[in-house]
Amino acid sequence: MGSSVKSSSPFTTHVLNTGDGVPAVRMALSLHRLDPRTAIWNLITIGNTDEDGRCPGLITSDAFTPGMYKVRFETGQYWESLGLSSFYPYVEIVFSVSDADQSCHVPLLVSRYSFSTYRGS
């Protein structure tokens, strides 16, 4: 069942700990949508990355509509769980969806003092 959830989710993410060259396991994250009328971010769901650094099933195709979204990664808590400190307590990636029929993959590459992201496929 896990693989069918992965393939049916229109939004996916993958977090890699580039400092150690491993998936970022058990990193907490949350997905939000901006309400254009109130300019308030509404929480859609929360989750944790799995052993592969992925967090499948964050949103259904029906709920994934055009608009502005953000995904917040709790990077500080992740590094603390490894007994390390980091410069960034969290990372928020804001992105726009114009065509909800296209899948959207937003990976995060993170180390204790840097991060990067891109639109994946």
Automatic annotation (TrEMBL):
SUPFAM superfamilies: Transthyretin (synonym: prealbumin) (SSF49472)
Ranges where the Transthyretin/hydroxyisourate hydrolase domain occurs: 6-120
The protein's Enzyme Commission number: 3.5.2.17
CDD domains assigned to the protein according to its UniProt record, in alphabetical order: TLP_HIUase
A GO BP entry: purine nucleobase metabolic process
Keyword Hydrolase: yes
InterPro entries: Hydroxyisourate_hydrolase (IPR014306), Transthyretin/HIU_hydrolase (IPR000895), Transthyretin/HIU_hydrolase_d (IPR023416), Transthyretin/HIU_hydrolase_sf (IPR036817)
Location in the cell: Peroxisome
Involved pathway(s): Purine metabolism; urate degradation; (S)-allantoin from urate: step 2/3
GO CC, alphabetical: peroxisome
Keywords: Hydrolase, Peroxisome, Purine metabolism
One protein family per Pfam: Transthyretin
Catalytic activity: 5-hydroxyisourate + H2O = 5-hydroxy-2-oxo-4-ureido-2,5-dihydro-1H-imidazole-5-carboxylate + H(+)
Gene Ontology terms for molecular function: hydroxyisourate hydrolase activity
Entry binding sites for substrate: H14, R54, Y118
Primary residence: other
Keyword hit for Hydrolase: yes
NCBIfam families named among the record's database cross-references: hdxy_isourate (TIGR02962)
Record-stated family: Belongs to the transthyretin family. 5-hydroxyisourate hydrolase subfamily.
Summary of subunit composition and partner proteins: Homotetramer.
UniProt function note: Catalyzes the hydrolysis of 5-hydroxyisourate (HIU) to 2-oxo-4-hydroxy-4-carboxy-5-ureidoimidazoline (OHCU).
Name recorded for this polypeptide: 5-hydroxyisourate hydrolase
Species whose genome carries this gene: Carassius auratus (Goldfish)
Gene name of this polypeptide: LOC113067242
